[in-house]
Design goal:
Strand content: 5-15%
Structural class: alpha/beta
Radius of gyration: 21 Å
Order of helices and strands: HEHHEHEHEHEHEEEHHEEHEEEH
Length: about 375
């Protein structure tokens, strides 16, 4: 726990300095990252402008800023700007895809055992059975076996969660997109935990994400991107409220939208771009490794194996601890913010609750040592 990883670079310390003080240890970016003062001010400024000018006039004033943010988000998820829609949530994005994509009534979806539980619920609600895709011992998509599945008995579509929310697991979505394209099978990617965390420009047919996690944008706004070759397939009725040449994907945007939230997301994207995405991805990999090293061989807890990428780490209790009670006590007594994960998050894989740790780029060895020390408290083993 010494060396370069234990000493955050000055620019990562500056990342924290541009945010309101967190009075404790924020290790929960996979739930919601800490927004910058600039981002928060941009939301407030737009809300004020709505009151001063009128909401729709203020929206028109913000269009250049929103267009610039849309273009930056498009680059991050690998689609043209015209193929990007601002959307309220990842759930709303998946629902939009399921209701506009030309799927057969009982189309099957290929998923991994680690698939996010609410996504499985949404697919089932729309009548789409799932088939489990082959994975290696860590849960990573087995690309050779996947290629054979696509050649012999392909599902109607494939849905991959790029970064698992419940443990350290990153899927090779770019390689999967290449194989799906060759087989003519649509690939949708849930990038809710990927955007801002890893490279989310995969070449998939559709990618969706939220802005509140690793991008540190406001809650209630996200992004849906559709590859250009798929635009003409979408089944969207013409709208009398929109010009005939309005980009078809952007017709998915809610007409009565939280525009201030979109403005805030665009500000967060500018913050992120200024840091340099590749540097952020590298730092988050380092933070994840530091977390796993610090929490290794912790009495009463096991680090859940992953594939060694990203900043999410999960701990499995080995002494019968109540994970939800542990999470609550860590916050109340030690001011340490983490997440208690119940099996519904990944029901095809999780069998017991887990404690999730997900620090951002400003994480220090001291933050993680505080967590380790708190978790050794005998009171947490009751």
């Amino acid at each position: 726990m010494t060396g370069e990883l234990a000493r955050p670079r000055e620019d990562w310390s500056d990342w924290a300095a541009r945010r309101p003080e967190f009075r404790g240890h924020h290790l929960d970016s996979a739930a919601a990252g800490r927004g910058s003062l600039t981002m928060l001010q941009s939301v407030a400024d737009h809300a004020l402008l709505e009151s001063q000018l009128g909401a729709y006039v203020a929206h028109e004033v913000a269009l250049p800023l929103l267009d610039a943010g849309r273009a930056e988000l498009a680059a991050l998820i690998g689609v043209p700007a015209a193929g990007v829609a601002f959307i309220q949530s990842a759930t709303a994005a998946l629902r939009a895809l399921l209701t506009t994509w030309p799927l057969s009534e009982h189309a099957t979806f290929g998923v991994l055992a680690s698939e996010w539980g609410p996504n499985l619920e949404m697919l089932a609600a729309h009548g789409h059975p799932v088939v489990e895709l082959p994975a290696d011992g860590c849960g990573v998509l087995d690309l050779d076996a996947f290629e054979r599945v696509l050649a012999s008995l392909p599902p109607s579509a494939v849905h991959l969660t790029q970064v698992a929310a419940h443990r350290g697991l990153v899927q090779p979505v770019a390689a999967a997109a290449t194989l799906c394209r060759a087989a003519g099978v649509p690939l949708w990617v849930d990038a809710a935990q990927a955007l801002g965390h890893v490279d989310a420009a995969s070449g998939a047919d559709a990618v969706y994400a939220v802005g509140r996690k690793w991008m540190c944008g406001p809650r209630g706004v996200g992004v849906l991107g559709v590859a250009e070759q798929c635009w003409d397939q979408l089944r969207l009725p013409a709208s009398a409220m929109l010009p005939a040449n309005w980009p078809i994907v952007q017709r998915l945007e809610a007409e009565d939208a939280h525009v201030a939230g979109r403005v805030g997301l665009c500000a967060a994207v500018r913050d992120y771009a200024a840091l340099g995405p590749a540097g952020v991805w590298q730092r988050l990999d380092e933070v994840g490794q530091l977390t796993r090293d610090t929490l290794a061989e912790l009495p009463g807890w096991n680090v859940v194996p992953g594939n060694g990428s990203g900043a999410i780490t999960a701990l499995r209790p080995t002494d019968g601890q109540d994970v939800t009670a542990v999470r609550n006590r860590l916050l109340a007594e030690d001011r340490i913010l983490v997440t208690a994960e119940l099996p519904a998050r990944a029901p095809r894989e999780m069998t017991t609750p887990l404690l999730r740790v997900s620090p951002h780029v400003d994480c220090t060895a001291g933050d993680l040592l505080a967590l380790r020390t708190a978790l050794t408290d005998p009171a947490l083993h009751l």
